[in-house]
Amino acid sequence: QVVLVESGGGLVQAGDSLRLSCAASGRTFSSFNMGWFRQAPGKEREFVGVISRSGGSTYYADSVKGRFTISRDNAKNTVYLQMNSLKPEDTAVYYCAADLSTAIYTTPPRYDYWGQGTQVTVSS
Asked: Strand pairing partners for 11?
């Protein structure tokens, strides 16, 4: 069992930056690829980005590429999502998720564990 807890969400203005954190407990953190997803009201949960176990590989959705950066600290059992140049369309609940697979996936069903989410609201 893995417990994931996100933090760092809030209300910001367009163009601002925000850093989300996701703290993990329960199993060896470095065993998981870690993904970030988001879900806006009335929309399906969508992939934001993923980082490999070692942190050596990252992959992003086109909508956030160049603005968002995922990093991880395996010693602290924490993954981060640095969000820059935020836009109103980035408004959503952001979730971190853990995947035990050896490959990297971008679809929610592939992920084994999920956090409770943190709200990010970007005003124009």
From this structure: 121
pLDDT given at position 9: 97
pLDDT digits (tens, 9 = 90+) for 91-122: 999 999 999 988 899 999 999 999 999 999 99
Pairing, β 58-60 against β 118-123: unpaired
**DSSP letter, residue 31:** G
Output the DSSP codes for 79-112: EEEEE-S--GGG-EEEEEEEE--SS---SGGG-S
d(CA 79, CA 29) in angstroms, rounded, equals 10
Assess whether pLDDT exceeds 90 at residue 26: no
**Contact assessment for residue 82 and residue 97, using Cβ atoms and an 8 Å cutoff:** no
Instruction: Report residue 22 CA to chain centroid gap.
Output: 8
In angstroms, the CA 25 to CA 42 distance is: 31
